[in-house]
Specification:
The chain is an alpha/beta fold. It has helices at residues 38-53, 73-83, 100-113, 126-133; strands spanning 19-23, 29-33, 59-64, 91-96, 118-123. It has a single domain (19-135), classed as 2-Layer Sandwich (Transcription Regulator spoIIAA), CATH 3.30.750. The protein contains 4 helices and 5 strands, in the order ββαβαβαβα. Strands 1-2-3-4-5 form a 5-stranded mixed β-sheet, with helices on both faces.
């Protein structure tokens, strides 16, 4: 993967955003949510859609939601909106959660996003999520 050209990472850390983001070594993103407010959702949507606009290859993203006990209906709507954006294609998304409520919310998002090019896995262990993401991406094609 040393020949992988990483695209610019359009993220400016904001302590009020409620999430942090960094580039994964494989070119995808690792996003950690600490809180979910309306402002968090707005900032995340702008960030996520900016990266979707330039998506031109299979990619892996890791979302760490373990610090969140649940998701609001607004958060679920935002996630479905981003996951069903026409720019979404060939993305493997691993989401790590800590509670059954979160697992159920992610299952709802996954069900509402089926058919839009996102393969989502839901995990309670970050290493299992990483192992799943490490599978060859050609399995999506």
């Amino acid at each position: 993967m040393s020949s992988l050209q990483l695209k610019p990472f359009k993220f400016t850390p904001d302590p009020d955003a409620g999430f942090t983001a960094q580039r994964r070594p494989d070119g995808g993103m690792h996003i950690v949510f600490k809180k979910v407010t309306h402002i968090t959702l707005e900032q995340w949507r702008r960030f996520a859609t900016a990266h979707l606009e330039e998506s031109d290859r299979l990619t892996t993203n890791l979302y760490d939601l373990r610090q969140l006990p649940s998701l609001s209906e607004e958060a679920i709507r935002y996630a479905v909106e981003v996951n069903t954006d026409p720019s979404v294609r060939n993305i493997r998304l691993a989401v790590v959660v800590a509670t059954e409520d979160m697992r159920q919310a992610l299952k709802e998002i996954d069900a509402l996003s089926t058919g839009y090019g996102v393969e989502m896995g839901i995990f309670t262990d970050i290493q299992q999520a990483e192992d799943w993401l490490a599978r060859p991406l050609t399995l999506l094609a």
